[in-house]
Design goal:
243 residues, alpha+beta, Nuclear Transport Factor 2, Chain: A, 6 strands, sigma factor, RNA polymerase subunit sigma-24, ECF_Sigma-70_Domain, NTF2-like_dom_sf, transcription
Length: 243
């Protein structure tokens, strides 16, 4: 019987963890990207949403915060926060002094904590808001949308210059509602779990057109992230296991 070498065995055992870490560190915005940039959505299992810490670590919001960090900041943050490596080892890995690494880690952590200080919304609350949102869009009811959207809601669309999308966020409840009520009746919205949180997927026939994730504060949707770039939708073809 062929024996798997120790390195391969270790890789297989930690494949899901390594994928999660790599996903958090890589795949960042190209300098020439057209329009708003959003992380690539991943189809995840429903139970990920119940693991608050894991779901938050791969959420669209946190990944967008990490995207604002430079490569060294991002590497330091992940090596320290995910792997809990000593500052000395991280310093050797990134070619910095321990003092510099401590400062980098502190700054990076502060940015992520600033996001988390707004509070983590439960999966149940997100599902409830999305159900109301879906009903309002499917019925073309602008009044119902006004009830679930915050006054300063922003709609961020990522088309990557490949498909039609706004080149800047659409801001304001009336403007966002106008865009959403313009979705054709031939499209269908289906619930899914994306990046560890409840979300909606817009389908035309048997093809995914847009992945919609939301941010909720005080029971109202304050931001809608719509990924339309076809190059980013491959992660919705099959469920990605995270840990």
């Amino acid at each position: 019987m062929h024996r798997i070498d120790p390195a391969t065995e270790a890789f297989v055992a930690h494949r899901n963890l390594l994928f999660t870490v790599a996903y958090e560190m890589l795949g960042r915005r190209p300098e020439s990207y057209v329009g708003p940039w959003l992380p690539e959505p991943l189809l995840t299992a429903p139970d990920v949403a119940e693991d608050v810490e894991l779901a938050d670590s791969v959420s669209m919001a946190v990944l967008r915060v990490l995207e604002t960090l430079g490569p060294t900041e991002r590497a330091v943050f992940v090596l320290r926060e995910v792997f809990d490596l000593p500052y000395g080892e991280i310093a050797d890995a990134v070619g910095k002094t321990q003092a510099a690494v401590r400062q980098i880690a502190r700054r990076a952590r502060a940015r992520v904590v600033a996001h988390r200080s707004r509070g983590v919304v439960s999966a149940a609350e997100t599902r409830e808001a999305l159900a109301a949102f879906q009903h309002a869009v499917e019925t073309g009811n602008p009044e119902a949308l006004l009830d679930i959207l915050a006054p300063g809601v922003a709609l961020v669309t990522d088309g990557g210059g490949v498909v039609q999308a706004a080149l800047a966020p659409v801001v304001g409840v009336e403007r966002v509602a106008q865009v959403l009520t313009g979705i054709p009746a031939t499209a269908s919205l289906r619930p899914a779990h994306v990046n560890g949180s409840p979300a909606l997927v817009l389908w035309y026939g048997d093809a995914i057109d847009t992945v919609l994730s939301v941010r909720i504060d005080d029971g109202l949707i304050t931001e809608i992230c719509a990924v339309r770039n076809p190059a980013k939708l491959s992660g919705m073809e099959r469920e990605t296991r995270l840990r």
